[in-house]
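Review box. Two proteins, two foldings.
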Amino acid sequence: MERGFFLSILSAFALALTAYPNDCRDIIGDTEPPPQGDISQTYPYGITYKTPPYISKIINEKGNAVHRIGLRVFQGCPTIEVSGNGRLWAAWFGSNLHAERARSLPDDKIFDYQPDNVNHLGQFSILATSEDFGKTWKEVYVFDPSPILNGSASDPLLWKDPEGKIRFVVARNMDVRDKDGVTTTTWEFKMENPDSENPGWTKPRLLCRDNASIMKPLILRDGSILRPGDRFSQMDNPDKQFFISEDIDGKINFVSTLHCPEASFAEQTLLQRKDGSIYALVRRKSQPPTGFESYDNGKTWKEVGFPLNVSSDTKSVFFRAKSGNIIYVCNDVSTELDKGGKKTIYHMENGKRKTVKSSRINMTAYISYDEGRTFPKKLLLDERYTSYPSVCEYGGFLYIAYDRGRGTYKAHEILLAKITEADIEAGKLVNKDSALKMEISSPFKYGGGVRKDDKYL
């Protein structure tokens, strides 16, 4: 990127200070933008965790196009949203170098895989769009912080705000070694015109330290926004999952936490019920997700359980359809713990229980007519190794993005299911325009992807 362009981005980063209660800082940190003359806003010197990021156009031509699909060896964790006129947007993160969560190592061990490390070295986030309801996709933007102190991206999110504008939220990992010691921060951009392939972007806003970019925020009936977040840097803290309540202009009302000792990457999916209460489903390490409810807009939470034994230690999502029914998308695999705590993963096949090695199979859409108390109907979307669903709706169709295989040979695809509620109710596709396993991005089909001899993946 040209230095002049980067300077223009930095000089444009001037937002009104947002006042919020002092106790919020203990969880989300100091998110107020510094004054224009602060050292963090002056490139290339004095970079801090508050130095703003930027979004770039993808170079699709042959040649030095570092983000082109043919170089990618890993990708996953998609998110999907739709504009007011039906343009689909999807985002996910990937790498040209190695698998998920690779750490910085000496040159002779640069490709070692360390799943307990969260530097996400070499990862960037792709933004793609479709103007034909998911039949074809074009990768148009990339969020890649690597030119600044070897930064990286993880966990992108697309969601639609109360004004119908699509927002792009992303986590940036950048060890600047500044006085605050913050490495992961969450930033948000807003599309000016999401109906256009070139929508235009607002200035980035710092949302919090740690991660608030995996699960879609909940828009409450009073117009406020409740954002789920997770302090991944405190994996053993049972109160690490948090919520930010804010107005549409970013003014923070409060920040709260939820106590769940079994929480993994918490990934709280949210639902406001007809009685006004809020229901949060939290991912757990060795058991199925469990539910919590709040009757004060998310300030305090009480565990109440969940009726389905599905999706242990992987992401699942709620989505309220325009019909008012609740759609729940998950991996339809059950978990059982014996008295010694040993976990058995299984699913039912032809009426018989079958033990499996992974809970990340059988991506399935459920429907509930009673605010999530029961889920009587379901549709299998993909029986293979799949994970991390995301949902939006347009024109009577539910669009469900998910990943398959991530860094696996001839996999690491981003896929799409286009279905209706009638399909779920029938347990099969009944709409002629519905489709399963549609391709959003498949690097191995275009010269990319891992090879059989890639030992570091």
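Next protein.
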Amino acid sequence: MMKETESRKKILVIRFSSIGDIILTTPVFRYLKNIFPNSEIHFLTREEYSIILQNNPYINRIISFNTKKGFSGLRMLKHNLEEEKYHAVFDLHGSLRSRYLTFLLNSDEIRRIKKYYLKRFLLVKAKINFFRNRGNSGSNRTFSVVEKYLRTCGFSETSGNFEQIKLELFPLSQDLKNADLFWKKFAGKSLRLAVAPGAKHFTKRWPAEYYGELAALLYKKYKLKTVFVGGPDEVQTVNEICKIADPKENFTVNLAGKLSLMETASIISHCSLFISNDSALMHVASAFQRFQIAIFGSTVRELGFFPLNPRSRILEKSIACRPCSHIGRPECPQRHFDCMREIKPTDVMNEFSDCMWVFKQAMKKDSGKKRK
């Protein structure tokens, strides 16, 4: 790692995709800026994801790459990077594209993430788990992808220190104000419940009918209204969920596809409780440390993509075929989909009830501090 006296040099961090992975890079920029406060930090990502880290105070410049430009665009990007004369380059993607860009790049130091392909293969294919390793502290715990990113940048073991690995997002102030106004109008003084039923891959999605049943149960028992959030791909699914839960449209609203990513993040930042699958929006909720319940199907936390949030709960079932993939599949390879179907709406309700009790206790504690 570069010396303290070299802290004025340029640093390049590379991570092209996807939304969740990019959110997981945020502790890296905070770490680098704290260690080298005078350094100029650049972040290279795909154009469609550049909005995620805009407004981040630890990043001096975001470099966007348009994949539609193909290899000619990549070649031009490589030329531009060579002209920047970076002192250190940290490749947090390790893809063919990022390897090409960093090959023979004029930099004093180039580090690339270690992906542990063999361990991942053994866990997914043979169900042999080597990811729970003992660290220097002697603890036996699951390591987050964030810690792998930090190690790539020369950071020693975090020993599970949350302040070192916590995620951060910085929406625009106007988006935050709009989100707060929306919640006040929709939920009043009630708890603010946001639910994200989507995920990129089928095996990471809890069934739509279960989400519909859950929303109905929550309203029946707690009179809680539900705000559904997601991207354009989830609009139809959320419409189906709302019809199942709330045919008269009294206690649900579908915001999927109606907001930008950072507007959605602002909505989540102002919610009281958040429920989702193992998805990008799960990491958004973690960045704001919302009380959250994450439903895991074909993936497991040992792969490193669990919610980095002390207020999070993970719901999962011990099914012999889990995990069947490290990112999810378009269909269940065993055809039964028990990893998700065995998690019933009543299971989430029970977890929710306990989570809400903890939330109310925290609110009382905060109110007591304000009165003092």
